[in-house]
C-alpha cells in the first residue's frame, strides 16, 4: 500500500518539514533483503516502487541487451543508500537526476549511494543504464534467461528480473510497467499487458507494452523471436494476444489447440473466481527446451513440452487461474506458495468436474488413496513446504485436497463465496496462508484452524478418522478419474 497525505491549510508546518531533505547523520542504508523467510537476499528494504519504465534494445544474433530503466519509488525511511536486484553490467546510475555512486555486490545486488540522502515519505526516481549478454550471466548458480534459435526469453520463478531489468525483486513490492523494446525488423517482442504502439526506423522495430495493474517482478516477462501471433477479443471486449514460435515442430498443433482456448477458460473462471482482474490475456509458446510453464501476468509462458502428449487445456486452466491466485492476489512471503498453487490446482479439479472427467470429490478421494502413509509425499507441508519443496507435487495435490476438505466442511455456498470474496478483498494486493484461514473463518462462521493444521501443516498422512471427517476417505480404492494424468502432467510442467 502507498500512503498519500491529504494536505489541509492547518498542515502548512508539516509541508515545510517534508521539504527539508534528510540529513546524512539521520539517514541509514536500506536493507539488502526484504525479509523473506525462504530467500532473505531477495528484494530490498527502505523504499517501495510504483512504476518501472524499461527502454530496451535487443539483438537476437548476439544475445546483446542494452537498456535504460527508469524506476519511480517512494522512500520508506531516510535513505543514505539502497539496493536493487540486478546482475547485468551497469554503466551509469542517476537518482533524482544527479549521478549516484554504485557498485555490484554479491551475485545480484546493485548498491546505490545517491548524491544526497533521500527523505522518508518522498518520491524519488532512479535511472539505470546497463547492458550485457543475459544468457552468459550466472547468479546463485543458474540463469533465468532462456535462449531460443531466434531470440531470448525471460520467464522463471521465483526470480527472472535480474537478467533484464533492475528491480526490487519480491512480490511484496508490486508496480505498474511500461516496456519498450527495439528488435531487428522481422522479429517480434512480446511482453505483459496491452500493446500500445509499434514503430520502425533504420532496420529496427520498437514494441511498446503497458501493464497498468500492480505486477510482481517475477511475473514480468519478455520474449523476443519470430512468432505467429493471433489476436482476438473476449465477449467482454478484452484483447487476447497469443504467440507461437514458428519452429515448434510436432508440438505446434497441440499448443495452439490448448492456448487458443484461453478466452473461453477465462470466461468460465470468471464465473467461479469473480471478474477477471486485468485488461488483457493470452499466452505464448517459444521454442525452448524447458518443461515448465509460468503464470506471467496477462500472458502466461508455456514450454512446448507441455503439449508433447497432445492438447492440454487443463494446463491453461492452471496458469490462467493464477491470474487471480498469485498474480492479482500475491503472496506475502514465498512460504505462502499454497495460496498460489493450491488454488490453481483446485481450478483444474473444478474444470475436470465441469468437463465430466472426474469430480473434485473423486479427485480428492483418489489423491488420498493413491499415496500410502509412508510415502514422502505426506512429509511435505503445503502451508510451509520449504524452499527446496516449493514446487513439490504435494503443494499441488495436497494443496487442492485441503480445499476440497474445506468445501466439504463448510458447504458449497460458503466455499464458493469465499473464492470470490477472497479475490475481491485482496485484489492487486498481497496475502498469506494465515490471512486465508482467517477470511474463511469469517465467511463461514466456523473455527477452521484444526482443519487447516491437518491438511496443510501436518508432515504425515491425515488419519482415517480425520479424512472421514473431511469426507475424503473412500470405503474402497477409487477408480482413477479420467483427468488425473493430465493434471499430474501439469505439476511437472509447473515445477522449475
From TrEMBL:
The EC number on file is 3.4.11.2
The residues covered by the Aminopeptidase N-like N-terminal domain are 50-219
Please state the span of the N-terminal signal peptide per the UniProt entry.
1-24
Which parts of the sequence belong to the Peptidase M1 membrane alanine aminopeptidase domain? Answer: 313-455
What cofactor does this chain's UniProt record say it requires?
Zn(2+)
Hydrolase is among the record's keywords: yes
Q: Name one GO molecular function term.
A: aminopeptidase activity
Gene3D superfamilies, alphabetized = Neutral Protease Domain 2, tricorn interacting facor f3 domain
Q: Which UniProt keywords apply?
A: Aminopeptidase, Hydrolase, Metal-binding, Metalloprotease, Protease, Signal, Zinc
Q: Which reaction does it catalyse?
A: Release of an N-terminal amino acid, Xaa-|-Yaa- from a peptide, amide or arylamide. Xaa is preferably Ala, but may be most amino acids including Pro (slow action). When a terminal hydrophobic residue is followed by a prolyl residue, the two may be released as an intact Xaa-Pro dipeptide
**Location of the region described as Disordered in the Swiss-Prot/TrEMBL record:** 467-496
Tell me its family. Belongs to the peptidase M1 family.
- Protein name per Swiss-Prot or TrEMBL: Aminopeptidase N
Record organism: Streptomyces asiaticus subsp. ignotus
The organism's taxonomic lineage, starting at the top: Bacteria, Bacillati, Actinomycetota, Actinomycetes, Kitasatosporales
Amino acid at each position: 500500500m502507498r500512503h498519500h497525505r491529504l494536505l489541509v491549510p492547518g498542515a502548512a508546518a508539516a509541508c515545510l518539514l517534508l521539504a527539508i531533505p534528510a540529513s546524512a547523520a539521520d539517514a541509514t542504508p536500506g536493507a539488502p533483503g526484504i525479509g523473506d523467510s525462504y530467500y532473505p537476499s531477495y528484494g530490498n528494504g527502505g523504499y517501495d516502487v510504483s512504476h518501472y519504465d524499461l527502454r530496451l534494445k535487443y539483438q537476437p544474433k548476439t544475445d546483446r541487451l542494452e537498456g535504460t530503466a527508469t524506476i519511480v519509488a517512494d522512500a520508506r525511511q531516510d535513505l543514505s543508500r539502497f539496493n536493487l536486484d540486478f546482475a547485468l553490467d551497469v554503466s551509469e546510475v542517476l537518482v533524482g537526476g544527479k549521478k549516484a555512486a554504485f557498485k555490484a555486490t554479491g551475485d545480484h545486488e546493485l548498491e546505490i549511494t545517491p548524491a544526497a540522502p533521500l527523505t522518508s515519505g518522498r518520491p524519488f526516481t532512479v535511472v539505470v543504464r546497463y547492458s550485457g549478454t543475459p544468457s552468459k550471466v550466472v547468479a546463485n548458480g543458474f540463469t533465468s534467461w532462456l535462449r531460443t534459435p531466434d531470440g531470448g526469453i525471460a520467464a522463471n520463478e521465483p526470480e527472472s528480473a535480474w537478467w533484464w531489468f533492475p528491480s526490487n525483486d519480491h512480490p511484496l513490492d508490486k508496480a505498474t510497467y511500461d516496456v519498450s523494446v527495439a528488435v531487428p525488423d522481422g522479429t517480434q517482442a512480446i511482453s505483459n499487458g496491452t500493446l500500445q504502439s509499434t514503430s520502425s526506423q533504420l532496420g529496427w522495430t520498437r514494441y511498446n507494452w503497458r501493464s497498468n495493474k500492480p505486477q510482481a517482478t517475477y511475473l514480468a516477462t519478455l520474449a523476443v523471436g519470430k512468432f505467429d501471433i493471433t489476436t482476438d477479443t473476449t465477449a467482454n471486449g478484452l484483447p487476447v494476444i497469443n504467440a507461437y514460435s514458428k519452429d515448434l515442430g510436432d508440438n505446434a498443433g497441440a499448443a495452439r489447440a490448448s492456448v487458443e482456448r484461453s478466452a473461453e477458460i477465462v470466461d468460465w473462471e470468471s464465473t467461479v473466481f469473480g471478474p477477471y482482474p486485468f485488461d488483457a490475456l493470452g499466452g505464448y509458446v517459444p521454442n525452448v527446451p524447458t518443461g515448465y510453464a509460468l503464470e506471467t501476468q496477462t500472458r502466461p509462458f508455456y514450454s512446448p513440452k507441455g503439449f508433447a502428449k497432445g492438447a492440454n487445456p487443463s494446463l491453461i486452466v492452471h496458469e490462467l487461474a493464477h491470474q487471480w491466485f498469485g498474480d492479482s492476489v500475491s503472496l506475502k512471503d514465498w512460504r505462502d506458495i499454497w495460496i498460489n498453487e493450491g488454488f490453481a490446482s483446485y481450478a483444474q479439479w473444478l474444470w475436470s468436474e465441469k468437463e465430466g472427467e472426474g469430480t473434485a470429490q473423486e479427485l480428492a478421494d483418489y489423491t488420498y488413496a493413491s499415496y500410502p502413509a509412508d510415502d514422502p509425499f505426506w512429509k511435505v507441508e503445503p502451508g510451509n513446504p520449504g524452499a527446496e519443496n516449493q514446487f513439490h507435487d504435494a503443494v499441488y495435490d495436497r494443496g487442492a485436497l485441503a480445499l476440497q476438505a474445506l468445501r466439504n466442511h463448510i458447504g458449497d455456498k460458503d466455499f464458493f463465496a469465499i473464492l470470490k470474496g477472497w479475490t475481491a478483498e485482496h485484489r492487486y494486493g498481497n496475502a498469506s496462508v494465515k490471512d486465508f484461514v482467517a477470511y474463511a473463518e469469517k465467511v463461514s462462521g466456523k473455527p477452521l484452524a484444526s482443519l487447516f493444521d491437518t491438511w496443510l501443516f501436518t508432515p504425515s498422512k491425515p488419519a482415517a478418522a480425520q479424512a472421514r471427517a473431511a469426507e475424503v476417505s473412500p470405503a474402497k480404492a477409487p477408480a482413477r478419474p479420467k483427468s488425473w494424468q493430465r493434471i499430474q502432467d501439469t505439476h511437472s510442467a509447473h515445477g522449475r
